[in-house]
Amino acid sequence: MTTAAAYALTTPDGRFEKTSIERRDLGPHDVLIDIKYAGICHSDIHTARNEWHRTRYPCVPGHEIAGIVAAVGSAVTKHRVGDRVGVGCMVDSCGKCASCLAGEEQYCTGGGTMTYNTGVTEEFQPGGTTYGGYSTQVVVTENFVLAIPEGIGLDVAAPLLCAGITLYSPLRHWNAGPGKQVAIIGMGGLGHVGVKIAAALGAEVTVLSQSLSKQEDGRRFGAQHYYATSDRQTFKDLRARFDLIVNTVSANLPIDDYMRLLNLDGTLVILGLPDKPLSVQPFTLANFRRSLAGSMIGGIAQTQEMLNFCAEHGIGADIEVISADGIDAAYERVLASDVRYRFVIDAATM
Ligand code: NAP
Ligand code: ZN
Ligand code: ZN
């Protein structure tokens, strides 16, 4: 087994503390990764603070992992020692259910394994719970290890492993592209990558942010339009405007107001995951034949496609690199919407 340094929380209202964890011995298909960078996703905060009511402590979050292959099992063919690689939200799935066979492992019905906070055997992860990327090393089966193309720095690539694929997948599924009016609600970690990807796909992009304070950044990321949702006039001006609206907000929104901004056959996709129900008027949905949908990360093959697309288009996250002792402070800034636009932990500081 390999001993790795990690940062863990032991209670929902505690602070991160340095600890050490074991990683399993390499099986034939396993890859040992020296983690270089780990992004801080808002899902880490929901989980660390038990906002989804299913957190197993100690909790080592982190599912935006970028690093270098340190060793490979005897039968590994996809990755070699020294390769630049990434790991996202999943580290295993059943491989047999209809979702897995369709390359949509994130919807595995046979018991998928998330990168952290999933109950597993002691052989899979000593301790019986998966531990994520706030750590110096991780062991992952080769099929769940992505290649990070040359041309994207590991630091700016790390957030693509969750934020990137979470936006790329619905943007592709609902055909964001030339001639399409796309709005992104919330310009945080997910949202800012979404603006970049939607613009690179050729869509006309509008940001719907709480204020206009990040307008210049939004335009730099590729948005043509930028509106403040604190201004009621926004909801009048943009009525029936969009083909696709992607909601990345981590808090509850009056979703009916946003549904009314959809044009004929438009879809509003929920990505943000607050633990509260949404409310929509039947009339709002029926009018303009609108749809309300959701989407969860993306499959492994599509994650690789997204990384290649981002490398081709020069897309990485805008990041602020922090040391491991700054995780608690970074969480507070994310909660205050004071993130520009993703905190990334430098694993060398662990
Ligand atoms: P983030 O960096 O905190 O960004 C969220 C943004 O939402 C903020 O920057 C802010 O944007 C806006 N916002 C926050 N509070 C708000 C409020 N009370 N009212 C209106 N707008 C508000 O978070 P993230 O990492 O992008 O994650 C966003 C959400 O997506 C989280 O709930 C996370 O768990 C979820 N998520 C889902 C998936 C999936 O697969 N579906 C994957 C990853 C994350 P402005 O400042 O521009 O208003
Ligand atoms: Zn995430
Ligand atoms: Zn499956």
Morphology call = globular
β-strand number = 17
Q: State the CATH topology of the largest domain.
A: Quinone Oxidoreductase, Chain A, domain 1
CATH architecture of the largest domain: Alpha-Beta Complex
Head-to-tail CA distance between termini: 19 Å
The Rg value, from CA coordinates, equals 20 Å
Q: In total, how many domains does the architecture comprise?
A: 2
Would you identify the regions where 5 or more consecutive residues have pLDDT less than 50?
A: none
Which small molecules are bound?
Answer: NADP nicotinamide-adenine-dinucleotide phosphate, zinc ion
- How much of the residues is beta strand, in percent? 25-35%
Q: Give the topology string: H per helix, E per strand.
A: EEEHEEEHEEEHHEHEHEHEHEHEHEHE
Q: Tell me, what is the CATH class of the largest domain?
A: Alpha Beta
Helix content: 10-25%
Sheet/helix structural class: alpha/beta
Instruction: Output the number of helix runs.
Output: 11
Mean pLDDT: 98
What is the makeup of the main sheet?
A: 7 strands, mixed
Would you identify the CATH H-level superfamily of the largest domain? Answer: Medium-chain alcohol dehydrogenases, catalytic domain
Catalytic activity: a primary alcohol + NADP(+) = an aldehyde + NADPH + H(+)
Protein name: alcohol dehydrogenase (NADP(+))
Keywords: Metal-binding, Oxidoreductase, Zinc
Domain Enoyl reductase (ER): 14-345
